[in-house]
From TrEMBL:
Pfam families: HATPase_c (PF02518), HisKA (PF00512). It is an enzyme of class 2 (transferase). CDD domains: HATPase, HisKA. The chain crosses the membrane at residues 25-44, 200-220. This is histidine kinase. InterPro entries: BphY/WalK/GraS-like, HATPase_C_sf, HATPase_dom, His_kinase_dom, HisK_dim/P_dom, HisK_dim/P_sf, Sig_transdc_His_kin-like_C. One of its GO terms (cellular component) is plasma membrane. GO terms for molecular function: phosphoprotein phosphatase activity; phosphorelay sensor kinase activity. Residues 241-454 form the Histidine kinase domain. It catalyses: ATP + protein L-histidine = ADP + protein N-phospho-L-histidine. Keywords: Kinase, Membrane, Phosphoprotein, Transferase, Transmembrane, Transmembrane helix, Two-component regulatory system.
Length: 454
């Protein structure tokens, strides 16, 4: 049974992954694959070009001097095969120098071979090795001046040999010879073996990293989806909570209005309670919709308009709070400890202070103490709001800035709270470039500390 359950969970996890992260995973995987393929092609192309570079330069340098190649032939081949008659007498001083030069340039590398063709493309042969090589090579006029690789049959019945070769049209002005074409061949078997091993290592490494990219793609797809899923969950909770908050006053309104229809002959005085409760719910709905609109505006981007204010700005606000506290049977005190002027957004800071004051009133009993202190340091303005109310648990401290979250739903609903105030407060503080923190007030109550850059 446990195996069946695990199998079912695994199947559902795979389906869930394919639905939520599959597209992102595919995008990451395709990008990684394209990167590794392009990187492999570039590395292999660079390696192939580089490994043959010295060989190609040697062939190029040799191919630029056809006369030296012919001198090689005079030393390595039967001279009569190539020349109609000797141009230089052997006993002359120039002839002696020429023979010496022939000996110097004839064996330019043990891995190199030179073939000569007449004007009809027939090879001029000499030793057995050249005969065997010539039998394995087809004369191709279309490949003149083009470097290429060819495979030649091994004269010793071993593995086939790989040569790097170029076919040249002989330019031997002044020499009476039947050589019309020259072909230079350089054995590159060792280079090819080295290149093959390097390719295997590179491809193996790339394939290994390609498999690693598979895991990386899965991780990145899940990681990139986290903020999307979080935003979706927040939006879902927001809609559910907003619908719940609107459903309650709408239900009360409906019941009150239905009661009015049950007594059509009753006077306004008789139905004053129903009308009063209906108006109260309408005010709650208006407040809720206003807060929702404010939240929507904050999400679209909050524009902060700074202006200079002095301590009188705060004192005026606190005088009004003192009257509100007196009406709600709370004791309110305040202090503003700074001189000169500070720059801040007057409307937003006033809304922030009102939210913090209102929150302190809601979460404290009558005769409670509420205090707001404003003080300025060298680079920041600190606003501290304290009360000796019910306090907030450590678990609630982590969530009180979330939308619609309320520590005591019964109390806040009774007093008209929707759990939106502190969310607005945090958005205001963040927009102003500050931080807000909540702590316990000793011996009881709550302390909100706001630090703003000024």
């Amino acid at each position: 049974m446990k195996k069946i359950i695990k199998k079912w969970q695994k199947k559902n996890n795979i389906k869930s992954f394919l639905k939520s992260d599959g597209k992102n995973f595919l995008q990451f995987f395709v990008v990684f694959t394209a990167i590794f393929v392009a990187l492999s092609v570039i590395i292999l192309q660079t390696l192939t070009t580089g490994i043959y570079k010295s060989t190609d330069e040697s062939i190029k340098n040799l191919s630029e001097n056809h006369e030296q190649l012919v001198m090689n032939a005079r030393h390595d081949y039967d001279i009569a095969t190539f020349f109609v008659h000797e141009v230089l007498p052997e006993n002359s001083e120039n002839g002696e120098n020429a023979i010496t030069h022939i000996q110097e340039v004839s064996n330019f590398s043990p891995n190199q071979t030179t073939l000569f063709y007449d004007k009809n493309g027939h090879i001029l042969k000499s030793d057995n090795e050249r005969v065997t090589i010539a039998d394995s090579i087809k004369f191709r006029p279309a490949t003149i001046n083009k470097l290429r690789n060819i495979i030649v049959k091994n004269p010793y019945n071993g593995a086939d040999l790989l040569y790097r070769t170029i076919l040249l049209k002989a330019d031997l002005t002044g020499l009476q010879t039947n050589i019309a074409y020259i072909q230079i061949l350089v054995n590159v078997d060792q280079l090819a073996d080295s290149l093959a091993r390097s390719k295997i290592i590179i491809l193996t490494t790339m394939i290994a990293f390609w498999f690693i990219s598979l895991g990386a793609s899965i991780y990145l797809s899940k990681w990139s989806m986290k903020p999307v899923i979080s935003a979706y969950e927040k939006q879902k909770n927001f809609v559910e909570n907003a619908s719940h908050e609107l459903r309650t006053p709408l239900a009360i309104l409906q019941n009150r209005l239905e009661l009015l229809f049950q007594k059509p002959n009753a006077t306004i005085i008789d139905q004053s309670e129903n009308i009063s409760q209906s108006l109260a719910e309408v005010r709650n709905m208006r407040l809720l919709t206003s807060n929702l609109l404010n939240l929507a505006k904050r999400d679209d981007g909050l524009k902060v308009e700074l202006s200079e204010v002095d301590k009188k700005y705060f004192e005026t606000i606190f005088d009004n709070y003192a009257l509100l506290a007196e009406n709600s049977n709370r004791q309110f005190t305040s202090s503003v400890q700074f001189f000169g002027k500070v720059k801040l957004d007057q409307a937003l800071i006033k809304q922030l202070l009102t939210i913090l004051f209102d929150n302190a009133v809601k979460y404290s009993d009558t005769d409670s103490q509420i205090n707001i202190k404003v003080e300025k340091s060298s680079q920041s303005l600190t606003i501290t709001t304290t009360d000796n109310g019910f306090g907030i648990s450590d678990a609630d401290k982590k969530k009180i800035f979330d939308r619609f979250y309320r520590v005591d739903k019964a109390r806040t609903r009774q007093k008209g709270g929707f759990g939106l105030g502190l969310s607005l407060a945090k958005q205001i503080v963040t927009a102003c470039g500050g931080k807000i923190d909540v702590q316990d007030n000793q011996p009881k109550g709550t302390k909100f500390i706001v630090k703003l850059k000024v």
